[in-house]
Amino acid sequence: MVDLSGTWLGTYWQEGIPSRFEAVFVQSGNNLSGSILDDNYLGEAQITGEVIGRSISFTKRYLITSPSPIKYIGTLSENEDYIQGKWNIGRRHSGPWEARRSGDNLMAELQTRLEQQIPQTTS
After folding, report:
1. Are 100 and 8 in contact (CB under 8 A)?
2. Which of 25, 51, 71, 123 is 20 to 30 A from 80, comparing alpha carbons?
3. What pLDDT sits at residue 111?
């Protein structure tokens, strides 16, 4: 069984305009939950959905800015690190989306990069 749990970085397009997001998915069996933080004024949203095989579907609900639920469907790649699909709000608004699995521990990765940039002093 695939496991989507973890951090994903993605983009969705609305009327041709891209919006970046960071998602944290938590999968338990076929159930999917988590949160998404958009890199725009819409802010944070909660998601609930399901995973069946490589097919993903979830509903995204913003905590403050937008009352309309957004439906997402997608397909996970064979190597389980890329999702692409479509989103829609009713019949009026829709577009493509995609996400890539992020590093397992972003803070550890950042710390390693910072250490590589700091010149080492020798005594």
Report:
1. yes
2. 71
3. 60
| Tokens at 33, concatenated | 């939950």
Question: Phi-psi bin for 66: left (phi > 0), alpha (psi -120 to 50), beta?
Answer: beta
Please write the tens of the pLDDT for every residue from 26-44.
Answer: 999 999 999 999 988 888 9
Indicate whether this model's pTM tops 0.85: no
Q: Which domains, ranges and CATH numbers included, belong to the chain?
A: 6-117 (2.40.128.120)
- Asked whether residue 104 carries a pLDDT value surpassing 70, the answer given is no
